Amino acid sequence: MTTLDLLRRLMGDVPVFELGHVWLAGAGPGDPAHLTLDAVAGLAQADVVVHDALVDPRTLAMRRDGAVLEFAGKRGGKPSATQADITRRLVELARQDKRVLRLKGGDPFVFGRGGEEALTLAAQGIPFRVVPGITSGLAGLALASIPATIRGVNQAVILATGHGADTEEGLDWAALAATGQPIILYMAMKTLDRIAAALVAGGLSPETPAAIVVSATLPGERVLTSTLADIASDAEAAGLEPPAIVAIGGIVTVREQLLALMPRVLEAVS
Ligand SMILES: C[S@@+](CC[C@H](N)C(=O)[O-])C[C@H]1O[C@@H](n2cnc3c(N)ncnc32)[C@H](O)[C@@H]1O
């Protein structure tokens, strides 16, 4: 049975990848177990897969026989393609009547530049479709037993980037601290010390629980819990490296509560 046969059985109608179309798709946080059926349908039909660095090799291996892989991400040390280069390439491939799967980690519209790519494709008259993925900010937390929301603790959750936190364009961290709502940070490992200091200066308690989830869903997954005051130095001492998600707020304590209760669960199933 081919992948498309299986998808037909599971989905009924499988969306048809038309020639000259681009699908802007999310591959989820890493482990192929978190791919959507729509993303698999894209992999099973695409002629070219233009992918970022965070897309797992096992996911790329699911592409149809003969589909070409094009890397469009950042790779340590080597010059990476600019966003303009990437969108130009997507337009070029679509105009060659290729079925182009633009595959990104997580969700393409969450800190993934999918919005910019959609706008450029639309402006150029290229038909495209958005295939959502599970964003690492939510999946990473869930897998570390940290709920993004929990009744009585928070009524909102802030997804923020740490990118640019050390520049003039950085976020107003005091304003975020003033909301009292948990903050989930992407791309924040380099600037975590500054962000933590700015949040404390903005009124958050230095004792606010904080956690880092590294390589969520992947074999190298690691979870570190600490406080806002210590999270950056603890991460450095533990040698934590990106990709990582940082969670700050009362939601983090749920992890400790669940871990403490696990012996009861294990007892019940043994
Ligand atoms: C350019 S952003 C892309 C975010 C992506 N579009 C999403 O929705 O997850 C890259 C950042 O996402 C986070 N990230 C992506 N995959 C991750 C993973 N498996 N574990 C932890 N963080 C991850 C890290 O903060 C990383 O620096």
From TrEMBL:
<feature type="domain" description="Tetrapyrrole methylase">
    <location>
        <begin position="22"/>
        <end position="231"/>
    </location>
</feature>
<dbReference type="InterPro" id="IPR014777">
    <property type="entry name" value="4pyrrole_Mease_sub1"/>
</dbReference>
<dbReference type="Pfam" id="PF00590">
    <property type="entry name" value="TP_methylase"/>
</dbReference>
<dbReference type="InterPro" id="IPR035996">
    <property type="entry name" value="4pyrrol_Methylase_sf"/>
</dbReference>
<keyword id="KW-0627">Porphyrin biosynthesis</keyword>
<comment type="similarity">
    <text>Belongs to the precorrin methyltransferase family.</text>
</comment>
<dbReference type="InterPro" id="IPR014776">
    <property type="entry name" value="4pyrrole_Mease_sub2"/>
</dbReference>
<dbReference type="InterPro" id="IPR006366">
    <property type="entry name" value="CobA/CysG_C"/>
</dbReference>
<keyword id="KW-0949">S-adenosyl-L-methionine</keyword>
<dbReference type="GO" id="GO:0004851">
    <property type="term" value="F:uroporphyrin-III C-methyltransferase activity"/>
</dbReference>
<dbReference type="InterPro" id="IPR050161">
    <property type="entry name" value="Siro_Cobalamin_biosynth"/>
</dbReference>
<keyword id="KW-0808">Transferase</keyword>
<dbReference type="InterPro" id="IPR000878">
    <property type="entry name" value="4pyrrol_Mease"/>
</dbReference>
<dbReference type="GO" id="GO:0019354">
    <property type="term" value="P:siroheme biosynthetic process"/>
</dbReference>
<protein>
    <recommendedName>
        <fullName>uroporphyrinogen-III C-methyltransferase</fullName>
        <ecNumber>2.1.1.107</ecNumber>
    </recommendedName>
</protein>
<keyword id="KW-0489">Methyltransferase</keyword>
<dbReference type="GO" id="GO:0032259">
    <property type="term" value="P:methylation"/>
</dbReference>
<dbReference type="InterPro" id="IPR003043">
    <property type="entry name" value="Uropor_MeTrfase_CS"/>
</dbReference>
<comment type="pathway">
    <text>Porphyrin-containing compound metabolism; siroheme biosynthesis; precorrin-2 from uroporphyrinogen III: step 1/1.</text>
</comment>
